[in-house]
Design goal:
heterodimer, A: about 325 residues, mainly alpha, MetI-like fold, about 75% helix, globular, B: about 350 residues, alpha/beta, Rossmann fold, 2 domains, eight-stranded mixed sheet, four-stranded antiparallel sheet, 12 helices, about 30% helix, disordered N terminus
């Protein structure tokens, strides 16, 4: 019941947040000192042609009318057409969002699956050699630039050892599109070859994305575990002779995860930002690559579309995190 | 001394010394402490903050902080076994929560905040149910045996019965709640229930009522006394409140600066206080005749304690020998044990009110 109220409350705030996001992207795209219409029309266009195109794109209207139309169409899933290819941006995004989501989900799972146990081990063996080594490992994760790591991984695993493909998402045709997550779709088809191909293509970009995320998760889990271990309830649990492993991996971990889960929500934003770079290096046909191309082509509609979609993904993930909080921490859902 | 006294005494702490590494140096927090708890007896361990009573409680449980505390000497004989000779693993499996259980000072922060109360109690039963034999808990990889549905149900019934005994209304509903959803008094009742569920031989209650409202304190104390007497469980009850100790304890041991100074039955303790510190303590209780009388001086540093008797700088009776030698515990008759060279005389004695 309380949880339901929490969920409804968070849903209620979802809409104003998205509206605010659209307002920001819209404003930014209208204050930058460049005329997209002139850019689209080309160097040889006459003034009449430019004005005609401006009217066609609706950019001759007053700003508030443009904003109204923009919000109305975005709500209906229409981001306008690309100024460069004149294809509907929603089509482009629809084919690219799943690729980025799949990559970031795998990266988040990877970083949590490795980062949480490492954080616990690091805290339990605080100030040991192991803890110091893990600290070096995590600090490097935060310090190393994604594009550099990506290239190093390519050089080692793709070029030198030949264990993984250099770039791309899959060899040959992808699987039949159901969820558009290749790892899932290939299994739905029952085609193990495509699955393995998709998985091996996934490997390097996912590791590149996951490494800094994992570093953050290790640090927050470690801090959370240390705080919990020094609490009165752990003192009590020890005085009552619970097995050490139950205290650490059940009683302490659940408390420590409260902070970690919040971080995972925030990490998601960083992952999407990093995806821009990582997708460019690995030629991964996702949102990030699309954003890079759009920026290079000054394709404002596409940039706005990308920004809104990336923002909505971030907001939705944090909505899920908020709800997950309610499940992990019963005090939250009061 | 031999077979007979062993069966009468459940716990005998002898000559126990514990030091802590602190920033200022090594502090001797327990200095050659002796204490005895008889079977089925409630023993009060009374002293000011920092006198070592919590350290003594933790030493018996075997949960001294391993990085800063060190046991320098002594034995803790529990039911014929010297606990100091046993491995931490053995103590966790076979002693803590099973033979010696614990009621914490602060029931607010001692429950894990993110698990329902019932889940925490059932986890306890999984590892500490009285149905488990010593053989069960000492298995090579310490599994809860097979925690079968049948055993679980039996344990659940056991929990419900005990929750009713500690006078918690609607136990099933309480088990579904989270710790923050029940009152402080209820939480302490739950803690008492959890301490008694494994059917231990000894319960260590560390200032178990200090964090509660005064009105609830009395209820909880009576409840603890009643249940312990019914179940024949020994209790070590630490407190800084002499009145509380007098109300529920059969026997009282007074500690000062890491040494036990006097130990006697509650009546004997109040009627014939013999150690000058105990006497001053009793005199410092507020009364109509003389108001409040404090004890002069202050608690000594445990890093650099006074030589001889640790109370000598504040003692009205101190003589030359008190400043040189540490007095040994002496039986003044009927198990009234005093650690003093120059005990108080009948005229100096504080009158029990």
């Amino acid at each position: 019941m309380k949880l339901l109220v929490l969920v409804l409350n968070r849903f209620f705030w979802f809409f104003p947040t998205v509206l605010g996001l659209m307002l920001v992207t819209f404003t930014i795209s209208h204050v930058i000192p460049a005329d997209p219409v002139a850019f689209v029309a080309g160097d040889n266009a006459t003034n009449e042609q430019i004005e005609a195109l401006r009217a066609q794109l609706g950019l001759d209207q007053p700003v508030h009318v443009q904003l109204y139309r923009y919000v109305l169409s975005v709500v209906q899933g229409d981001f306008g057409v690309s100024l460069y290819t004149l294809r509907p941006i929603s089509h482009d995004l629809a084919s690219r969002v799943p690729a980025t989501l799949e990559l970031t989900f795998v990266a988040v799972l990877l970083s949590a699956a490795i980062g949480i146990p490492l954080g616990v081990i690091s805290a339990v063996n605080r100030n040991s050699l192991l803890d110091h080594l893990l600290r070096v490992f995590t600090v490097s994760g935060l310090a190393i630039a994604a594009f550099w790591l990506a290239i190093l991984l390519q050089l080692l695993f793709a070029m030198e050892l030949g264990w993984t493909p250099l770039q791309g998402r899959v060899d040959g045709w992808g699987p039949d599109e159901v969820t558009r997550f290749y790892l899932i779709d290939s299994l739905l088809m029952g085609d193990l070859d495509i699955f393995l191909s998709a998985a091996s293509h996934m490997m390097l970009p996912a590791i590149t994305l996951a490494y800094p995320a994992m570093a953050t998760i290790v640090r927050f889990t470690r801090a959370g575990v240390l705080e919990a271990i020094n609490s009165n309830y752990v003192m009590y649990e020890e005085a009552m002779g619970f097995p050490r492993r139950v205290i650490v991996w059940k009683f302490v971990l659940r408390n420590a995860l409260i902070g970690t889960v919040t971080q995972i929500g925030l990490i998601f934003g960083i992952l999407i930002a990093n995806a821009v770079v990582v997708e460019a290096v690995f030629d991964w046909p996702g949102l990030g690559l699309y954003a890079v191309q759009s920026i290079l082509q000054s394709d404002y509609n596409a940039i706005m579309g990308f920004t809104v979609v990336a923002g909505v993904i971030f907001i939705v993930v944090n909505l899920i995190v908020d709800i997950a909080h309610g499940f992990i921490d019963p005090r939250e859902s009061r | 001394m031999t077979a007979n006294s062993r069966s009468d005494d459940l716990l005998r702490v002898r000559d126990l010394s514990v030091s802590f590494a602190t920033d200022g140096g090594v502090a001797r927090v327990l200095d050659h402490v002796n204490m005895t708890i008889g079977r089925g007896r409630i023993v009060g361990l009374v002293g000011e903050s920092g006198c070592g009573k919590t350290t003594l409680a933790r030493a018996i449980l075997g949960v001294l902080p391993s990085n800063s505390a060190r046991v320098d000497s002594g034995t803790i004989d529990f039911d014929g076994t010297d606990l100091l000779q046993k491995s931490p693993e053995w103590l966790a499996r076979n002693v803590r929560g099973r033979q010696i259980s614990f009621i914490p000072q602060d029931p607010f922060s001692s429950f894990n905040p993110v698990f329902p109360i019932g889940s925490q109690i059932m986890e306890l039963m999984k590892w500490k149910s009285p149905e488990l034999s010593e053989e069960d808990v000492l298995r090579p990889r310490w599994r809860p045996g097979s925690y079968s549905r049948a055993r679980r149900n039996a344990d659940y019934e056991r929990v419900l019965i005990l929750l009713r005994k500690v006078q918690l209304p609607e136990p099933e509903a309480i088990l579904r709640k989270y710790p923050h959803e029940v009152s402080g008094g209820q939480r302490q009742r739950l803690m008492i229930a959890m301490a008694l569920l494994p059917e231990p031989k000894l319960v260590i209650a560390d200032e178990a009522t200090t964090a509660l409202d005064v009105t609830i304190q009395a209820q909880i104390l009576m409840l603890l006394r009643e249940l312990a007497t019914d179940l024949g469980v020994s209790v070590l009850f630490t407190t800084h409140d002499l009145g509380t100790a007098y109300e529920i304890c059969d026997r009282i041991t007074v500690m000062y600066a890491g040494q036990e100074m006097e130990s006697a039955t509650s009546n004997e303790f109040f009627n014939h206080p013999t150690h000058p510190y105990t006497n001053s303590l009793l005199r410092s209780l507020p009364s109509r005749e003389h108001g409040i009388q404090g004890i002069r001086g202050e608690i000594p540093s445990l890093i650099d304690p006074p030589t001889g008797c640790r109370f000598n700088p504040r003692c009205d009776n101190s003589v030359a020998v008190c400043r040189q030698d540490r007095p040994d515990p002496t039986d003044m008759g009927d198990g009234h044990i005093v650690r003093c060279f120059n005990p108080v005389s009948a005229e100096q004695r504080a009158k029990a009110s």
